[in-house]
Amino acid sequence: MTTLRTPRLTLRRWREDDVAPMAAINADPEVMRWVGDGSARDRAATEDGIAAWEREWEQRGLGPFAVEVRETGRLAGMAGLTVPDFLPEILPAVEIGWRLGRPYWGRGLATEAARVVLDFALRDRGLARVVGVHAVGDAASEAVLRTLGMRPERETTHPAYGLPLCVHVIETRCA
Ligand SMILES: CC(C)(COP(=O)(O)OP(=O)(O)OC[C@H]1O[C@@H](n2cnc3c(N)ncnc32)[C@H](O)[C@@H]1OP(=O)(O)O)[C@@H](O)C(=O)NCCC(=O)NCCS
User: Fold this and answer.
1) Ligand 1 pocket, residue 31 CB under 6 Å
2) pLDDT of 70-81, one tens digit each?
3) What is the CATH number of the domain that holds 101?
4) Which residue spans traverse the membrane (predicted)?
5) What is the 3-state secondary structure (H, E, C) of 18-75?
């Protein structure tokens, strides 16, 4: 069971009791503004999403983590790795991503989670390359990607939604 710890966060695999708090996060239009087509998701979609994230862990040995605040034990959201199947032009690739509930924004928590996820990808899983894809206009995610040391590689368009996207990348220089 893969668990990562930072000073303020625990990143762990998903549990049944994460569905309700993650559904509340996914139901917030402000949170979902830059995710996918920008629409909020209901509880059933959240349940399906968490099941899909857990399948990624089972099949690939990596996936999106549940992000828990250590002090309270509450679920703050998601941060982790996925294969960006929605964007075939950049495959094969592993993508880093995040989604936190609004009460957790503006405290450096996304950056704290993303740093330990990137370290997990590059050191623990030995990946030579990780990408980050953000919607053009999503300044917060762009700032996180830059802070991680990722560089903008290309602009493209979401194949399904027609929205402008920016692809960032980080590569290790030696084995
Ligand atoms: C993106 C997100 C994870 C950022 O979380 P956060 O914990 O507030 O981020 P941090 O506090 O670590 O801040 C990261 C950087 O973004 C900047 N930032 C935060 N919100 C911002 C905003 N609305 N506009 C511009 N910059 C912003 C911060 O100033 C910081 O920049 P710095 O490191 O240069 O000082 C959070 O807003 C979120 O979950 N949004 C909804 C889901 C989402 O859009 N996910 C990504 C797309 S799939």
Assistant:
1) yes
2) 999 999 999 999
3) 3.40.630.30
4) none
5) HHHHHHHHHCCHHHHCCCCCCCCCCHHHHHHHHHHHHHHHHHHCCCEEEEEECCCCCE
Domain total of the chain: 1
User: Is the CB of 146 inside a 6 Å radius of any atom of ligand 1?
Assistant: no
For residue 171, the CA-to-ligand 1 centroid distance in Å is: 23
What residues form DSSP beta bridges with 167? 133, 154
Q: Encoding tokens for residue 166?
A: 């920016």
Rounded to the nearest whole angstrom, what is the distance from the C-alpha of residue 76 to the centroid of ligand 1? 14
Q: In this structure, which residue's CA is closest to atom 27 in ligand 1?
A: 140
Ligand 1: atom nearest CA of 34 is 44
Q: Helices 19-26 and 43-60 meet at what angle, rounded to 10?
A: 120
Q: 89: which DSSP letter? A: G
pLDDT at site 174: 60
* pLDDT tens for each residue of 32-87: 999 999 999 999 999 999 999 999 999 999 999 999 999 999 999 999 999 999 99
CA distances from 78 to 13, 53, 97, 128, 175 (A): 10, 10, 8, 23, 29
- The CB of 165 under 6 Å from ligand 1? The reply is no
Q: Which domain holds residue 166?
A: 4-171
